[in-house]
């Protein structure tokens, strides 16, 4: 069985390759651009005139000319194909080689292309069904094979954390499976909106693969910059967030809502911890989707138990929303992408894409590890031409008594023509 190439270009590209590799790709791209242009120059400027001049006493020879041009074009096409192939090999995402040994049979089943029974679909132009799986999965074949080893129609192994590990390694989206996921009885769920701020039995969450096995343990930890004790939604600081400011960097939800032109009805929260932002918004009749993985805690299940909408998605994935849909996007430290400027740019452009004109981008206590970083972020934001409705750079002391710089801002997306 030969290699099965994967669908690429669906926005799942990761940016984890070594910079050496990306500069090689850049060089290739440059080379490709130059050769293409040279060929074009050759084909359309210099050569034809010469040929035409040579044969212009007989118009029938024009077919000879067009023959030559066709040859040249064929030459261009084949060299572009070669370059494309080289580039793919460098990036390492050409295909998952299903012929190699120890590949799970279910992975082969899932990835095999299925020709459409009636040939080409006239509406979409596609001729076969392809399965969508992250191209970086090819780098985690052992884990992926483990993930795809299960009994068809049986119970899936209790391995959600294995799936998440793959996602964190860039294997996103994961392949689909044909086994039944583990179910946990969801007993004692409260009706909405009471569910927003009420405890439920912690037995309804999946604790496998997690260091903590209960909420008390989670609450004693700083799980990330936006979640220190964030699972205590009855007594904790979580109950004050967005309605009572601790520092001038904390904007209040009602203040921000009053800035939205045309009304704020739907929003997207990135890195939203246990979902309290969406909960406060729900109380104001605003529907917010909260994007989070389950790193170190059952964030998704917790958010869902509150009657809110969790979106299990890494930040490296293109947002699964159409352009210009959200009235508001709220981002806290999710934007922290490890100092790769181009990565932050891709993220910002994708954020910008999903916000509607006149919609708001709320940067909430974004931690700037250095002055350079703050300047870079400021320059990037200014490039988008947002109106700064609020802009505040503040300092806070961290646990170790060291001062840290935070940026909070409410920005309004302009109408671009
Ligand atoms: C709710 O759960 C938290 C743990 O997350 C606990 O500390 C708190 O006492 C519980 N509150 C009530 C009213 O049961
Ligand atoms: C939310 O919607 C309900 C039902 O339409 C309404 O009764 C309530 O006043 C609204 N709340 C706010 C804060 O707008
Ligand atoms: C150089 C060349 O091939 N010239 C040809 C142009 O076309 C005439 C008629 O078709 C031929 O007789 C020539 O040989």
What does this structure look like?
The chain is α/β, with parallel strands linked by helices and 417 residues long. It has two domains: 19-96; 194-412, Vaccinia Virus protein VP39 (Rossmann fold). Helix content is 34%, strand content 16%. It is built from eleven helices and 13 strands. Strand 10, helix 10 (341-354) and strand 11 (355-368) form a beta-alpha-beta unit. Helix 1 packs antiparallel against helix 2 (62-91). The longest helix has 37 residues, at 19-55. It is globular, with a radius of gyration of 27 Å. The chain starts with a strand and ends in a 5-residue tail after the last strand. One 2-acetamido-2-deoxy-beta-D-glucopyranose binds at residues 284-285. It is found in: Endomembrane system; Membrane. Keywords: Glycoprotein, Membrane, Methyltransferase, Signal-anchor, Transferase, Transmembrane, Transmembrane helix. Belongs to the methyltransferase superfamily.
Question: What is the secondary structure topology, with strand pairs?
Answer:
Layout lengths: L3 E2 L13 H37 L6 H30 L3 E2 L8 H7 L2 E2 L12 E2 L11 H7 L12 H9 L46 H5 L2 E3 L2 E2 L24 H5 L8 E5 L5 H8 L3 E5 L7 H7 L3 E3 L14 E6 L9 H14 E14 L2 H13 L3 E11 L5 E10 L5
Helix pairs in contact: 1-2
The structure holds 2-acetamido-2-deoxy-beta-D-glucopyranose (3 copies).
Strand content: 15-25%
Structural class: alpha/beta
**Distinct compounds present:** 2-acetamido-2-deoxy-beta-D-glucopyranose
CATH architecture of the largest domain: 3-Layer(aba) Sandwich
CATH superfamily of the largest domain: Vaccinia Virus protein VP39
Largest sheet: 7 strands, mixed
Question: How far apart lie the N and C ends?
Answer: 50 Å
- Global outline: globular
Count up the domains.
2
- Sequence of strands across the biggest β-sheet: 9-8-7-10-11-13-12
CATH class identity of the largest domain? Alpha Beta
CATH topology of the largest domain, what is it called?
A: Rossmann fold
Q: Number of DSSP helices?
A: 11
Mean pLDDT: 84
* Low-pLDDT segments, ≥5 res: 1-22
Count the E strands. 13
Order of helices and strands: EHHEHEEHHHEEHEHEHEEHEHEE
Instruction: Determine the fraction of residues in helical runs and give it as a percent range.
Output: 25-40%
Our Rg estimate from Cα atoms comes to 27 Å
């Amino acid at each position: 069985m030969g290699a099965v190439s994967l669908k690429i270009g669906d926005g799942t590209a990761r940016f984890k390759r070594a910079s050496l590799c990306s500069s090689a790709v850049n060089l290739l791209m440059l080379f490709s651009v130059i050769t293409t242009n040279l060929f074009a120059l050759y084909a359309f400027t210099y050569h034809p005139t010469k040929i035409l001049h040579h044969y212009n006493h007989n118009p029938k020879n024009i077919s000879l000319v067009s023959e030559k041009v066709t040859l040249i074009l064929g030459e261009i096409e084949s060299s572009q194909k070669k370059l494309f192939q080289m580039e793919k090999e460098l990036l390492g995402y050409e295909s998952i080689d299903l012929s190699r040994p120890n590949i799970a049979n279910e992975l082969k089943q899932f990835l095999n292309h299925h020709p459409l029974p009636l040939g080409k679909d006239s509406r979409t132009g596609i001729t076969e069904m392809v399965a969508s799986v992250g191209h970086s999965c090819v780098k985690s074949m052992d884990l992926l094979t483990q993930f795809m080893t299960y009994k068809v129609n049986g119970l899936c192994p209790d391995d959600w954390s294995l799936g998440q590990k793959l996602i964190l390694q860039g294997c996103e989206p994961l392949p689909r499976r044909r086994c039944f996921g583990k179910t946990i009885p969801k007993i004692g769920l409260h009706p909405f909106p009471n569910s927003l701020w009420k405890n439920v039995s912690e037995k309804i969450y999946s604790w496998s693969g997690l260091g903590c096995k209960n909420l008390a343990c989670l609450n004693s930890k700083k799980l990330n910059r936006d979640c220190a004790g964030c699972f205590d939604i009855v007594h904790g600081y979580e109950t004050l967030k967005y309605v009572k400011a601790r520092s001038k960097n904390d904007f209040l939800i009602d203040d921000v809502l009053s800035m939205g032109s045309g009304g704020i009805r739907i929003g997207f929260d990135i890195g939203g911890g246990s979902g309290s932002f969406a909960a406060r918004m729900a109380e104001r009749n605003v529907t917010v989707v909260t994007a989070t993985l389950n790193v170190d805690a059952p964030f998704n299940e917790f958010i869902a138990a509150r009657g809110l909408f969790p979106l299990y998605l890494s930040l490296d994935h293109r947002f699964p929303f159409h352009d210009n849909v959200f009235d508001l996007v709220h981002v806290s430290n999710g934007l922290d992408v490890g100092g790769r400027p181009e990565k932050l740019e891709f993220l910002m452009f994708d954020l910008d894409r999903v916000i509607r004109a006149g919609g708001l981008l709320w940067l909430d206590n974004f931690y700037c590890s250095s002055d350079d970083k703050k300047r870079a972020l400021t320059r990037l934001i200014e490039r988008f031409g947002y109106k700064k409705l609020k802009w505040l750079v503040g300092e806070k002391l961290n646990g170790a008594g060291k001062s840290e710089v935070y940026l909070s801002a409410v920005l309004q997306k302009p109408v671009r023509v």
